[in-house]
């Protein structure tokens, strides 16, 4: 075990005051990430007519990653974002960067064993891309911290050991099983039992990553526009024409990357995305109180479908996410609801103060795999990251860039995962029913085996 990654030190960064917001973050939801931006400069609104080889619609991590990969292959790009860069889930998630996709690993083998392994390897490639870009491009404030612990809320030694063995034997992904006594050295709670440690996962500041990469795109002659919603596009000719309120883009290719916040302008793609809400809070700085609760800098997540995931920020705050819903986009009393989740794990924090809470919409497909395909000649999509976007966005962005610039074929790995109708009004109901059933199953196991 890498002790320098697992154990935290006793240094705590001086915290900014809660409520200390900056007007330069106008247009963003107020989150921990907007309050800790490394660079608050924005990007202009599209005005007039511009031309490029590729126009990317959606400035989240998939869109920004695709644009970056295309610039590295010598193509000119335009990015259209209707709000702010990484306005949605890409800039307000839990910050955990790890291999895999939103769905279970078993789904990867739909196209066979070889394709399943290649898909997982691609997800690992996405992790490395983020870390490499952060280092090589000197992206400020991303602050990657290595290591993630997965923990079960009921005794599950066999299940955890099998998961570790499966990752090693099938994907050459080396993880380390943590029995209860070992796990509780790092996370001081009676709520968790068995777990495993993944040294190849990280946690980062996702908004600083996306904004920093967008700035590098501009430095490489790309064009990035905020507050520039696509109203319509004409894809019937060799030259595609996209219209915004105050401007027009002419391009040879279009890549649609809108996700949970997509509108009807995305056509049948929007009807194939299921917006699912998740919830995150950040506490006030906890100082030395954390030393008795978390003796690790790793991110932590439990094994439930609607799991809790948490980490200590470089500023010494506890950032905690959990829960998901297709219906309750912004539930009342969010602070207290999320604090109750903290207290289930750390009852000693009964007096902890919540600094800020927020919600975000993730874009899911029904099969929980991304949509990566050419919808019609010259029209590509890279979306449906399903709450696992920090590695998936860079991975599929690279695949689409390869296909456009180099006639690459790795996009064919996603052929078994085509567009599927989201179920309209019944989709959110079904999603919530699945979550409720999963949570009930876990509660029963916790009660009778814990």
Automatic annotation (TrEMBL):
One of its GO terms (molecular function) is oxidoreductase activity. The keyword ATP-binding does not apply. It comes from the Bacteria. Keywords: Oxidoreductase. Pfam families: DAO (PF01266). The keyword Oxidoreductase applies. One of its GO terms (cellular component) is cytoplasm. Residues 53-402 form the FAD dependent oxidoreductase domain. This is FAD-binding oxidoreductase.
